[in-house]
Amino acid sequence: MTLNADGYPVITANSTATISTHNGSLQILYSSVTDYGSISSRDYKISINVIAPDVPWWGVKDSADGNGKTLYLAGEEVPGKADTPDESILNGFASWSDAPWYSYKNDIVKVEILETSKKIKLNSSERLFGSLSYVTSLTGLKNLDMTNVKKASLMFAHFGRYGSGCTADIQNLTTSTALNATNQMFYYAHFTSFNPTGMNTEEVTTFDEMFGGFSINDGIMDLSSFSNNKANNIGSMFWQVTNVTTIYADSSK
User: Fold this and answer.
1) pTM of this prediction?
2) Residue 59's pLDDT band (boundaries 50, 70, 90)?
3) Which of 185, 191, 232, 243 lies 20 to 30 Å from 214, alpha-carbon distance?
């Protein structure tokens, strides 16, 4: 951006200037066909576009193919984005609307969890991706650190429900023996295939409606890594599942 002798920006026809601010950027688009000189001395005609500020660990952008929006999450610094502070540890959400991307829920069709030098450390994953009913693609689950997660209730509730099924690297969803509640975790979710072989359920006490209303395109659920030895509530675990023809389980667990 060119400044005059007094330090004011000089406007030229059809030019653009971007001014960084604390909360983001203010982009000024000079769209007139006349050179008006400096802002300080003359009238001017501009259009203003406020660019959304960078957010440390999440953001929503238009999808590359032009269809819908992509939600991205990151554990630390991403090129072009602000640093994620170490204290950005998620504790899940008490209600759907607590998710910062809730207002985009009907537009988000892809979720990307980006690989950075730090994983996203969760203390709870309750309702984390719940209500994202139009998602068709989920990648990067290996970049979630769920070591300390105790409650994963409703984590994927209604996920991909109204689309043709979500393609996800669900095998990379890794939990530990800290996990003790998975009720309604995949409630009315819709996936193309499903093999959560990284989940440790040894200490889970409640599986209530974990797969209530669940749907899957290829009909196969691989639950061979699951253990229900500590379970005291498995009521309606598979209530109203649809298009499920085969469930793999390990009876020794």
Assistant:
1) 0.73
2) confident
3) 232
